[in-house]
Amino acid sequence: MLDCLGQMAPKGHLMKILVLNCGSSSVKYQLFDLDGRGEASLASGIVEEVGLGNPRLTHRRAGQSKLTWTDIPVHDHKEAIQMVLDTLVHPEHGAIGSVQELEAVGHRVVHGGERFASSVRITTEVVQALYDNVNLAPLHNPPNIQGIEAMMTLLPHVPQVGVFDTAFHQTMQAFAYTYAIPYRYYKEDHVRRYGFHGISHCYVAHRTAEILQKNIEELRIITCHLGAGSSLCAVAGGKSLDTSMGFTPLSGLVMGTRCGDIDPAVVSFIQEKEQCSLASVMDILNRHSGVFGISGISPDFRDLEKEASLGNERVQLALGVYAYSVARGVGSLIPAIGGLDVLAFTAGIGEHSPNMRRRICTFLSWLGIDLDEGKNKESVIEGEISLPGAKVKVLVVPTDEEKMIAQETRAVLQKQ
């Protein structure tokens, strides 16, 4: 597979890579064994409620059942990562004999700003640059940095690589990422469209080309990462030329709890009506909007589809708003790539909701999209779900951000 660095990922010696995705109160991990014979996941899991009331660790070694430990002594990200390392070398449930077997650690970092257009090996200078970008992602970058610094302390001799969610979109042209506000806000404060979910969009676009046995350079693809957070990406020549999210992950499509694109004046209207702070308004738009805000029930699409089938009109409206938001977003991205060859669905909703895929594709039937309803309803799918001869192919491609991070980590280290 091509990596997001735009070069063929090298198939080198045996390399065990630990991938970490540190959230504000969680540490998600996966251990990979990448060698010349293949790419295997040895173990995976998550530590939840880090620093909160009831921390727990869920772990699964390949070939074994999932296990959960509660009442574990985890107060911060460093202790959580130490617990991960202890679990990976557990005599019964671990996947390696010693942490000395780890050859690299790859970190998901949400925001690289304009400084990082590709994955990089972590140095003290890189860490400082991440601190400089905290104002661009105040909720996401701090825990990412905490994970990096914890590993620098726990395994100081193991090389680390930062893989950025924003990096794939750094190939957008200025007319696609520039906001129509006074230009000084871009020059002085770097306010622009950045886009997110880049690791997923990169993986899915390249995997789509593999499935179709086509050269990605020849395909015009729109990838639809549809989950609690949702975004689209227009890919041509293997590069991201436009995306739906912007300066923050709040903009773009309607999402589970996020409003997506709205008239900016709505912000001041709500603030005046509620007599509340700007922070309170942003909390409403981030946590209490989207399909949750419309339905009044849940941000979980599984709950919403059950309610919709029972005739709940607000829930039906919420699902309709979401589907139309995605379809409208797809239409708006087509000019960036000059047409459309493939529409690829991924992430929780994109992979598991045939009803939502059908709703979206119905709005887009004018493009030459024609679903194979039988294939669309299959419970486990990777591959084409459009009818033979359809002008635009439609695929379901399960995303694998952790594998993408592992591949990127290997590529960075083997280039040095």
Descriptive report:
The chain has 416 residues and is α/β, with parallel strands linked by helices. The chain has 2 domains: 15-164, ATPase, nucleotide binding domain (Nucleotidyltransferase, domain 5, 2-Layer Sandwich), CATH 3.30.420; 214-396, ATPase, nucleotide binding domain (Nucleotidyltransferase, domain 5), CATH 3.30.420.40. The chain is 37% helix and 20% strand. The protein is built from 15 helices and 14 strands. The chain has an 8-stranded mixed β-sheet, with helices on both faces. A 6-stranded mixed β-sheet has the order 11-10-9-12-14-13, sandwiched between helices. It starts with 14 loop residues before the first strand and ends with a helix.
Strand line-up across the major sheet: 5-4-3-2-1-6-8-7
The poorly predicted ranges are: 5-10
- If helices are DSSP runs of H or I spanning 4 or more residues, what is the number of helices? 15
Portion of residues within helices: 25-40%
Q: Care to count the β-strands?
A: 14
H/E element sequence: EEEEEHEEHHEHHHEEEHHHHHEHHHEEH
Could you say which overall geometry the principal axes of the C-alpha atoms support?
globular
CATH fold field value of the largest domain: Nucleotidyltransferase, domain 5
Mean pLDDT: 91
In percent, how much strand structure appears in the residues? 15-25%
C-alpha-based Rg, rounded? 21 Å
Quick summary of this structure?
The chain has 416 residues and is α/β, with parallel strands linked by helices. The chain is built from 15 helices and 14 strands.
